[in-house]
Amino acid sequence: MKIEELINKHYNQLNETDFHILKYILNNKSECHKLGINSLAEKCNVSRSSILRLAQKLGFSGYSEFRVFLKWQEQEGNNSDKSQAEILSNDILETLKYIKTKDFSEMCKLIHRAQRIFIYGTGTAQLDCAFELQRMFLAVQKYLYVIQAQTELEMVIKDMTPDDLVIIISFSGDTPAIFPAVQSLVAKGIPFISVTNLKNNRLARMTPYNLYANSSSNELSDGTKLNTFASFFIISEMLFSHYVDYLKQLQNDAKNGEQL
Q1: What is the pTM of this model?
Q2: Which of 132, 126, 130 is nearest to 170 (CA)?
Q3: What are the structural domain ranges in the chain?
Q4: Superfamily for domain range 97-255
Q5: Gap between the Cα atoms of 241 and 98, Å rounded
Q6: What does the alpha-carbon distance between residue 181 and residue 134 come to, in Å, rounded to a whole number?
Q7: CATH number of this structure's domain 3-81
Q8: Res 44: pLDDT
Q9: What are the SIS domain coordinates in residue numbering (predicted)?
Q10: How many CB atoms lie within 10 A of CB 238?
């Protein structure tokens, strides 16, 4: 969804100050995603809280998430001038930058404590990613159950408890068909990790446990759209790698405790 669509969607909630800020953003798209909240407030001659309120009115948790969205929009807009190889390389680099700032500790705790772990992918490539995660976690005696169809997900949720964990891999994070099942997870208090594209999306907003993969689209001369996907495999393997490190830390802590 483009920022113009978000403005239309939330138009009735916006006031004169909001439209003033949005006018600056729309006229300076290439600059705004690089600005911190204080810098943008200064450029627009408004308060910091005005920027934050606008971001929240547009459906973002805060300015940081809004800024990521603006960056993603700018990257998508520039892709027509890049080769497919350049787009893929950039997506991988951006995902690696994101990983360096991400704290995986809470998700590692969830994985470690879960009695059962289920993983669901919303499409063919997402399922390939799910099976790869399942394969990797075998090495640490964590057995992930891959759910291959939406109807299976709905059936299995009936038997799930808050001691279980679900990992959902969705390219857009906005696939309408999955939300009845996701709402059931929320209602039952079953934790889940979302793995989605690096953009504002409904699935990520429904859980505090989010992972993002940078994925861009490029349009060929015949109108065919290509989406990169390698970053989803990278973010998945990084989740596994952090879990391996988490286990090592637990072992070291246990040894140090014995020596005291």
Answers
A1: 0.72
A2: 126
A3: 3-81, 97-255
A4: Glucose-6-phosphate isomerase like protein; domain 1 (3.40.50.10490)
A5: 15
A6: 21
A7: 1.10.10.10
A8: 95
A9: 107-255
A10: 18
Distance CA 145, CA 127 (A): 12
* Alpha carbon distance, N-terminus to C-terminus of the chain: 56
Helix intervals (H) in 102-173: 105-113, 124-137, 150-157
Could you tell me what percentage of the chain is helix, strand and coil, using 3-state DSSP and rounding each to the nearest 5? 60, 10, 25
State which H helix or E strand residue 88 sits in.
helix 84-101
Residue 129 near residue 232 (C-beta atoms within 8 A): yes
Amino acid in position 227: N
- β-pairing, 217-219 with 225-227? antiparallel
* pLDDT tens digits along 50-85: 999 999 999 898 898 898 888 877 766 566 677 889
Q: Torsion angle of alpha carbons 62, 67, 72, 76, nearest 10°?
A: 130
The three-state secondary structure class of 225 is strand
